[in-house]
Structures are given as C-alpha cells and as structure tokens.
Amino acid sequence: MEFRSGMGLAMAHLAAARLGATLGAAFLASLVECVEALTVVLAVGSVRGWPSALAGAATGLAVLAAIIAALGPALTRIPLHLVQLVVGTMVLLFGLRWLRKAILRSAGLIALHDEKAAFAKNAAAMRDAHTAGAREWESGRGWDTAAFAASFNITMLEGTEVVFIVVALGAGGSGLMQAAGLGAAAALVLVAALGFALHRPLARVPENTLKFIVGVLLSGFGTFWVGEGAGLAWPIPASASADLAIPCLMAAYLALALALVPICRNRACTRSAAPLAMKVEE
Amino acid sequence: MRWIKSIAREVLGLFVDDGSFAAAIVIWVALCVVVLPRVAGCARWAGPVIFVGLALILVESAMRFARRGTK
Lengths: 282, 71
Hints:
The structure holds two protein chains of two kinds.
Chain A: H1 2-48, H2 50-76, H3 80-106, H4 115-128, H5 132-138, H6 145-170, H7 176-198, H8 207-229, H9 245-271
Chain B: H1 2-15, H2 19-35, H3 46-68
Helix pairs in contact in B: 2-3
C-alpha cells in the first residue's frame, strides 16, 4: 500500500516536472524570439513614431493568436503516436540546430547576436524608407505603411517561431499545450514590459546561454517523442514511467554539448594559426 | 505578398540551417523508426540507440564546422 502511494507520488512529481520543463522551454525559447522582435519594433517606433509601429505589432500578434487557435485543436484529432513522430522529428531539427549553433558560438566560431547593432541597422533602414505611405504619414494623413509593415513583418517572422515552439512542445501530451502557451505568453509580457519601461533593445539578455539551454531541452523532448511515436522502449524500470527518460536525455545532451565546446575551440585553433573567420548571424 | 515568402523562408530556416546536418537527422530518425522495432534483441535499448546516432551527427557536424572555419 505504502509502495503504491509512493509510486503515485513519484508519478505526480514526474508529471509536474514535465509540465515545468515544457513551460520553461517555451518561456526561454519565446524570450529569445521576443527580444529579437522587440529590437526591430523599437527601432521602427523610435524613428517613425509609435502608433504605426505598435499597430503593426498588434496586428501580427492577432494573426498569430488565430493560427494557434486553429492549429491547437486540429492536432488533438490526429493519433498521438503520429503527432509525436512528426512533431518529434521537427523538434529535433529545431532543437539540434539551436544546440549546434550555441556550441559553435560558445567555441567562438560564430559571432554572438548583437541587439544594439540590429537596432542601429533597422533604425537606419527606417530613416531611409521614403515610401508613399511615409509621405502621407509625414503630412499628417493616413498610416505610415512602411513602419506598419516593418513591425508586422518582424512580429510575424519571430512569432511564427514562437507558434511552432508552443505547438511542438504542447503536442506531446495532455495539459502540455496550456503550459507551453503560458510560457510563451509570460515571455511576451515580460519583454513587452521591459521594452515599454526601458525604450531600448535588451542587449544584456544572455541570448546564447538561453539558446544553449533551449537546444538541450528541445533535443531531449524531440528524441523522447520520436522514440514514443515509434513505440520504442527505454531502459527504465518497469515500475517507473517512461517519462523518466526525458531528464536523462536532457542531461546526456547537456554533457555532450559542454564537452563539445572546448573540443571545437581546440580543433579550430590547432588546425590553423590564421584568425578564425567569424560568421555574423543575420 | 513579399512577407509570405519571407515567412516561408523563415519557417524552413527554423529546421534547416546546414542542409547535410538536417538530412542526416531525418535519415537517422527514419532508419530508427523502420528498423529498430524489427530488431527484437535491442528492444530495451532501442530508445537510447536513437540518441547515440543523433549525438554522433551533432559531433560530426560541429567538428566539420570547426575544421572548415579555419580554412
């Protein structure tokens, strides 16, 4: 009896940990995307004024909310193992891509993303945009279409990534969609509040560390879901839940990634005395 | 509708950065899904086999980039 109640408690802890990991992964991944979108919206707003910039961002958010509302329920009609297999593969492609890039950045092989430089580049582009909409706006008539479009585009571009992350993380089981959505919403609110209060790009957010962590979490989830979708077994005691494999996979990916950073750095240094060509991310 | 093209490019870019890296992941996953359920001997270790393959793909891709970066 005591053994059974102990097992029940352990299962409840594992389910809570899975919800927490889903929420945390969605929050951190969305935080990175929201910071990048905020930089552009701030550049547009500070150069061309706030009404068109904010209207563009708000319209983008409304379109994204409609996509989530349509996609979320549709996924529940597809058999779970198929969703796990397809979404798991997509999560793997996404997560391992982030993890690989974070490893290479940590090793100094790829330049870090610079929010201040992105802000300056977008602000200069907005100053140079002389469209018909801009002329109408400058004369006090109508919307600034260039500012609206720039804000809308970046919200849609970065937001599409957030939607994918929420849908992918939420598709793995019951209750996970709400947790992933909550994580993404919390990131959006936090970044919007900081942007509103500071009025400058969030250059001090440790973007590469966040991408490293999210890459590890998503790679762990993706590997587990592909395994579950294919009906494969994990070397977990029969009395425990297969979910126990998730933290083990995450720990293994983390150890591998941390070991790869110095190896890549040394490999690059020992193969050539020439300075490394730093590839700046767009 | 330039933004639709941009979004399509961005969505593809979500999954594919290095083409050979993405292709290796998809091929390994497909192999595991087709072959592993038929191999009774490794049933208990079938899940970790997926991880080992993916870990090797990640190591190879990162090392290849490190070597290429010095060229």
